[in-house]
Specification:
28% strand, Rossmann fold, binds magnesium ion, binds adenosine-5'-triphosphate, YbaK protein, alpha+beta, 15 helices, 9-stranded mixed β-sheet
Length: 569
């Protein structure tokens, strides 16, 4: 491609709205343009990267035995009503009506559509297993679109859905996707981890996220410092801390005027926050839920929501609800005599001795409280794991890092096939619900994540596998005929060999061309300058510091050598 013919619009300034490197560089390199909040148009260079990633995804999905498909993005509401998600999805769904007032949405995801296809097309166990995927645009009216295409309102997703006759089959399908994802992200040269993820109120089934470690990531990931345990903080567990054993002492109610917060209590009782258990009150639809964790811990709301079987609306209770549940002002909630529909007790609290809790009476606390003797509840893991706690597998300290979720694989089981009646006839002649899995990759987010891990102060440093072009040939002084001619020749030769090459034949100064080549991140730059009169050109890798001077006749073999390293022609 001749750059004089290309729609390319690089920017020297960092656009104000862009906070993170990938967003800044995608705008500065002119890969995409913003049209509205969270809505972007991809320009030719950016689109080439998107297509490269799509093709890596496509190849690995095909290798794993999945079949490409393309569903409509416009989905009738009836399907969502069948699964019960028309309301549940909430304002994140873009809804619309046709001229006859029939309701539709722009698909935020396609479980319903693929379940519908499966129930129409699959009749017998003989047609199983089946894995269908598509690479398609998704629409989500995100509450906070940000960081460019990291979290946009329109984005390209590869979504796949597997159908099996039993759980053993699902395990195989799931593992094939797991392996395919590893290959995909490795080929994109991402440093990633596969972490255990929360699988929601359905529980147990299994789900993993592919996380790219990055300081700007929106997810927190727990890693063990010693073994390979890794989990999303939403799901992560740690070995509970065991309190030192003590003789149980007599329960007492103590007057604690104006002492409400843990800090105030620590001062008042001159002890540590580990000697307290706090009781938080939540509203889960029309239920009121109490949750107890040790004074220095935080509640993990996802674990709580899962433990109570999920809720459409789940939030901290309002002041009135707290007053009703505790018979007291806010700040004095405790487990003894509390009026809640369910009381969840973190396992660490169960193991504590003679601790302090709110008195369910304004201005009072109980001391010498012990689980089992003074109160009971549903014991489980309801706390947020923190750095330094013990790994649940090996007991070594855990660390917490930020990550970008680029992919997600999920064992759905029969959630959709049951609600939507997607059955098949098994070998024994009886109808059974299809066992499903779903598997997503965010293509644009993957592109942004690649940049987050591959850039320097001059711009993007694309890995060869996803670079928009592999080579750029730059005549240093366009007015010098000798340089232009030699550059043209090199360009033509490389093009004939099927190499993805740009010729920067724009009427610009060499400095501008070099800056642009660096900014857009082309892996190999060949500069034709003064030395051409001696039959020499400069050969520079974007990832390297200094250029090499090579003979013109060696250009092809040098380029091939670089591309071969990455097994690209
Ligand atoms: P998140 O927690 O980041 O909102 P999600 O759990 O909603 O993600 P999924 O429904 O599992 O995401 O979608 C599959 C993949 O699609 C994600 O792993 C991510 O790569 C991508 N993705 C999801 N939402 C967006 C978005 N708003 N913009 C860009 N990519 C997205
Ligand atoms: Mg989301």
């Amino acid at each position: 491609m001749r750059m004089s013919n290309m729609l390319i619009s690089t920017l020297r300034e960092i656009p104000k709205e862009a906070e993170i490197p990938s967003h800044q560089l995608m705008l500065r390199a002119g890969m995409m343009k913003k049209m509205a909040s969270g809505v972007y148009n991809f320009m030719p260079l950016g689109l080439r990267v998107i297509k490269k990633i799509e093709n890596i995804v496509r190849e690995e999905m095909d290798n794993a035995g999945a079949q490409e498909f393309l569903a409509s993005a416009v989905i009738p509401s009836e399907l969502w009503k069948e699964s019960g998600r028309w309301e549940v999805f909430g304002p994140e769904m873009f809804k619309l009506k046709d001229r006859n007032e029939r309701e539709f949405c722009l698909g935020p995801t396609h479980e319903e559509v693929f379940t519908d296809i499966a129930r129409n097309e699959i009749n017998s166990y003989k047609q199983l297993p089946l894995n269908l995927y598509q690479i398609q645009t998704k629409y989500r009216d995100e509450r906070r679109p940000r960081f460019g295409v990291m979290r946009s309102r329109e984005f390209i997703m590869k979504d796949a859905y597997s159908f099996d006759k039993d759980n053993k089959g699902l395990d195989i399908s799931y593992n094939k996707m797991y392996e395919a994802y590893k290959k995909i992200f490795t080929r994109c040269e991402l440093e990633y981890s596969c972490v255990e993820a929360d699988s929601g109120a359905m529980g147990g089934a299994g789900s993993a996220e592919f996380m790219v470690k990055s300081a700007i990531g929106e997810d927190e990931v727990v890693f063990c410092s010693s073994c390979d345990y890794a989990a999303n903080v939403e799901k992560a567990t740690a070995t509970p801390e065991i309190s030192e054993e003590e003789e149980m002492m007599e329960l007492k109610k103590v007057e604690t005027p104006n002492v409400r917060t843990i800090e105030e209590l620590v001062k008042f009782f001159s002890t540590t926050s580990k000697k307290f258990a706090k009781t938080l009150i939540y509203r889960a639809d029309d239920r009121v839920i109490g949750v107890m964790v040790r004074g220095d811990r935080e509640v993990n709301e996802i674990k709580v929501s899962n433990a109570i079987g999920g809720a459409v609306e789940f939030e901290m209770a309002d002041v009135e609800t707290v007053k009703q549940a505790t018979n007291a002002q806010v700040g004095f909630a405790g487990p003894i005599g509390i009026k809640v529909d369910e009381l969840l007790v973190d396992e660490e609290v169960k193991n504590m001795y003679n601790f302090i809790v709110g008195g369910n009476e304004t201005g009072y606390h109980y001391v010498n409280v012990n689980y089992g003797r003074d109160f009971e509840g549903k014991v489980g893991d309801f706390r947020k794991v923190v750095e330094g706690e013990k790994c649940p597998r090996c007991g070594k300290p855990i660390t917490i890092a930020r990550g970008i979720e680029v992919g997600h694989i999920f064992k759905l089981g029969t959630k959709y096939s049951e609600s939507m009646g997607a059955t098949f006839i098994d070998e024994d002649g009886s109808p059974k619900p299809l066992i499903m899995g779903c598997y997503g990759i965010g293509v644009n987010r993957t592109m942004a994540a690649v940049i987050e891990q591959h850039y320097d102060e001059n711009g993007v440093v694309w890995p060869l596998s996803v670079a928009p072009y592999h080579v750029v040939v730059v005549p240093a002084v366009y007015k010098k005929e000798e340089q232009m001619k030699a550059a043209e020749e090199i360009y033509n030769k490389l093009k004939e060999l099927g190499i993805e090459v740009l010729l920067d034949d724009r009427k610009e100064r060499a400095g501008v061309k070099f800056k642009d080549a660096d900014l857009i991140g082309i892996p190999v730059r060949i500069t034709v300058g003064k030395r051409i009169s001696d039959g020499e050109v400069e050969f520079k890798l974007r990832s390297g510091k200094e250029p090499d001077v090579i003979k013109v006749e060696d250009v092809v073999s040098k380029v091939k050598e670089v591309l071969d390293k990455c097994s690209i022609k």
